[in-house]
Amino acid sequence: MGTISGSRGLDLNIGMTGIFITATGTDIGKTYVACQLLKWDQAHWRVFTACKPVISGWPTHESEIYKTDSALLLAANQLPITAETLDRMSPWRFHLPLTPDMAARREGKNIVPEALLSYCQQLIEEAKQASKAVLIEGAGGIMAPISGKFTALDWITQLESPCILIAGSYLGTLSHTLTAVEVLQMKNVNILAIVVNETLNSTVSLQETCECLQSFLPYPIIAWPYSKQTEGVNKAVSTLYNSLLQSITNTTLLQSAYESIIA
Question: What domains can you pick out in the chain, each with its CATH number?
């Protein structure tokens, strides 16, 4: 496996220049986690870019666009929010807040899987040429229909991308998360980390949820507390970021060097 030099001197593993962000379901926190990673990256190594190729629930009024996931990702990556950057970030946009397949059919449109895969592969290649890695945010959960019987899982497996799995801490998440992992394992998807994003007002402990999942799984399990807990969020994002850096680089960062860049 070859290497390329990152924007601040890291040697990137070119097989890891596309990382898919998926989840156990919708509204679990994919965009939130991706944005936090991008903001952290902007302050440190600047090796990540991002895209959210497919999005539904797109606003009909232009004044609401800045609230969309696409706009949030652009802002987190310190890019302007323009028609051009939105088209590049999210080429497939649908107004109805449904699964992409349902929304597209209702609006008389369709998503051609080959075109979607080609778009992502182009971004991965561009990231490689720029010595970066691209975070590809999916739509909905791991089995969400994207086009006909083409699901988010098919999207990931056909890209041959490693992934980050986002889960919640609600009652029932253990079954949902373990099921999602089982499906990913069946398709030989490389799971880089599992983020348990704390569900507000959950009756289940975030820490206990993570401990239980860790007893079943060999992957890094990262507890991500509710967003108002600034110190806890900073710890979670730095842990995930460092884990990803070690996955996408061919050198292990010395702890002292890592601590110096986050100080």
Answer: 3-262 (3.40.50.300)
Q: Which residues are part of the catalytic machinery?
A: 52
List per-residue pLDDT tens for the chain, 263 residues long. 444 444 555 666 545 689 999 999 999 999 999 999 999 999 999 999 999 999 999 999 999 999 999 999 999 999 999 999 999 999 999 999 999 999 999 999 999 999 999 999 999 999 988 889 999 999 999 999 999 999 999 999 999 999 999 999 999 999 999 999 999 999 999 999 999 999 999 999 999 999 999 999 999 999 999 977 789 999 999 999 999 988 887 543 333 333 444 44
141 by DSSP, 3-state: which?
Answer: coil
Query: Which stretch of DSSP H or E encloses residue 61?
Result: none
pTM, entire model: 0.90
DSSP secondary structure letters along 129-153: HTT-EEEEE-SSSTT-EEETTEEHH
